[in-house]
């Protein structure tokens, strides 16, 4: 079966929005309060939050097909392979591009991202079977049961305190808005009705790509509102509630498995 191109997270557009006031964007796009939501909820997950990560084991080097945005294509590489184990019985193969020749460096990179991914709620990890990790500064991506990671870009996300939020976004692509084997929520009658019932979109990015990005763009604000209420402003609370009330109810009704995340008081 031919594997389709992974869905992209377009950081270039979102960085532009980060420097523009929410009110300006709201007036410009008639009701979308954000340009790209990962930049507006930098404390949805932070370094103090727990991770389900248990251990990581090196399993050698073997040929793997990986997507590489630097080539804008699939590549065949012999990456360092690590198996990450999580406390809810999930496992992820971490594939670190062979360009990282030093095993100790590859192990450190694999450990870091495996731990961070372990902070995501279970529902966002269920659709992630592999992490593809490359050098370079290219947007992360999510889909094909994988998250596509670029080390220099990850460092930039981390400098803005949004690396975990980007992983939430990409995990939502892989686990909630992708064809089989998991349910593609973006095609369900309930989600389509919620889209139609809400007056607009939570962000410019979601509005520009309603089939591809609306789930991921909306999940993070829902997550912040339901599980990190004490970490977001009253203004952001109002914006979320007013912009996507029906989408919020749709997510609520799914009863997602959220471990290790617990609800705000």
**β-strand amount:** 15-25%
User: Which descriptor suits the 3D outline?
Assistant: globular
- What is the strand arrangement across the widest sheet? 1-8-9-7-6-5-2
Low-confidence stretches: 1-29
Give the helix proportion (percent range): 40-55%
Biggest β-sheet description: 7 strands, mixed
Count of distinct structural domains: 2
User: How many separate helices?
Assistant: 11
SSE order? EHHEEEEEHHEEEHHHHHHH
Structural class: alpha+beta
Radius of gyration: 18 Å
Total beta-strand segments: 9
User: Oligomer, anyone?
Assistant: single chain
The residue-averaged pLDDT reads: 90
Structure, explained:
This protein is α+β, with helices and mostly antiparallel strands. The chain folds into 2 domains: 8-45 and 177-254, no CATH class; 53-161, no CATH class. It contains 11 helices and 9 strands. It has helices at 11-18, 22-29, 103-117, 122-125, 151-159, 163-176, 189-197, 204-208, 214-227, 234-243, 245-254; strands spanning 7-8, 53-61, 64-68, 73-77, 80-86, 91-96, 130-134, 141-143, 146-150. Strands 1-8-9-7-6-5-2 form a 7-stranded mixed β-sheet. It is globular. Residues 1-29 have low confidence and may be disordered.
Keywords summarizing the entry:
265 residues; 2 domains; alpha+beta; single chain; 40% helix; two-stranded antiparallel sheet; 9 strands; disordered N terminus; 11 helices
């Amino acid at each position: 079966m031919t594997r389709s191109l992974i869905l992209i997270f377009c950081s270039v557009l979102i960085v532009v929005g980060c420097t523009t006031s929410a009110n300006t964007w709201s007036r410009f796009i008639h009701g979308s309060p954000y340009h790209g939501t990962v930049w507006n909820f930098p404390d949805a997950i932070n370094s103090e939050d727990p991770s389900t990560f248990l251990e990581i084991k090196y399993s050698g080097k073997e040929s793997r097909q990986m997507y590489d945005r630097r080539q804008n294509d699939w590549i065949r590489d012999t990456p360092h392979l690590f198996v990450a184990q999580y406390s809810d019985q999930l496992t992820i193969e971490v594939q670190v591009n062979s360009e990282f020749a030093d095993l100790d460096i590859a192990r450190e990179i694999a450990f870091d991202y495996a731990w961070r991914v372990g902070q995501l709620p279970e529902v966002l990890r269920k659709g992630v079977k592999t992490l593809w990790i490359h050098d370079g500064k290219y947007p992360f991506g999510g889909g094909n049961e994988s998250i596509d990671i670029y080390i220099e870009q990850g460092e930039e996300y981390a400098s803005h305190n949004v690396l975990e939020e980007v992983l939430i976004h990409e995990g939502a692509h892989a686990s909630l808005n992708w064809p089989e084997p998991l349910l593609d929520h973006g095609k369900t009658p309930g989600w389509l009705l919620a889209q139609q019932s809400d007056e607009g979109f939570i962000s410019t990015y979601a509005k520009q790509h309603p089939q591809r990005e609306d789930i991921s763009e909306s999940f993070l604000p829902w997550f912040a509102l339901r599980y990190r209420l004490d970490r977001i402003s009253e203004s952001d609370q109002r914006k979320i509630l007013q912009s996507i009330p029906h989408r919020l109810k749709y997510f609520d009704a799914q009863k997602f498995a959220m471990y290790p995340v617990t609800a705000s008081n």
